[in-house]
Amino acid sequence: MASHRERFLAACVQMRAGDDKAKNVARACAFVEAAAQQGARLVVLPEVFAWRGPASRDDEIAEPLTGPTLRALGDVARRCRLTIVAGSILERPEGGATAATALPWNTSTVIGEDGEVLAAYRKIHLFDVSLPGRVEVRESARRSPGDAPVCVDTEVARLGLSVCYDLRFPELYRALSRSGAQVLCVPSAFTFPTGAAHWDVLVRARAIENQCYVVAPNQIGPTADGHHDYGHSSIVDPWGTVVARASDGEGVVVGEIDLAYLARVRSELPCLEHARLLA
Fold this sequence. Notes:
It is built from 7 helices and 16 strands. It is of the alpha/beta class.
């Protein structure tokens, strides 16, 4: 898989997931198929695309990587011959939880054109925030953190994986770019107050400083937790130019990934080669 296409189309799926898992997964599959019809070879779903609901149902909803959600997307990937980044699911370890994983992971997976899972990344940075009168979230009360960055070769490009709140931690993305990432995937459920202030700036910054494409699908609209997600799903090139941005609603946005252009940016402004790691 190390030999990639020089140019291809990538797609962000912008959607609003609710507490009906079967409905969410069916809609996600339909959005992926719609992206394929537009010529996309890489489709990235948002964070928690399969289910958003009360903590009391976490144990019921969580599933292993071999569970029905990723099997359904694997069928679509195989049928449409494309690569899918399955935003994130609530992952339960195979064989059940242990003391070290009493809480499920928030896990993003990559599914190849053959329908098989190529890689899984468990969200490292968990979103704990309190903005009085606006949003109150404690992801760490419901999720176990991951402990390792993940970069993976696919049929289209070498992908660096991350999830939502990770976007605020540039050291993760530098680790991914140093591991050869060409496209950084940032499936998100970025909330409105912080999204309006920081989403566009952070997405473009991660692209510029790592000289990578960034594909960043976001959820949109009201959630069961009483806050709103920001939307504005985007694809950004390694110069920081927004090449595609979603409208204010659910749907698919498609943009071109040009790996020859990426190589030219890195050659003409070789800042990745100039980086000096300081203690």
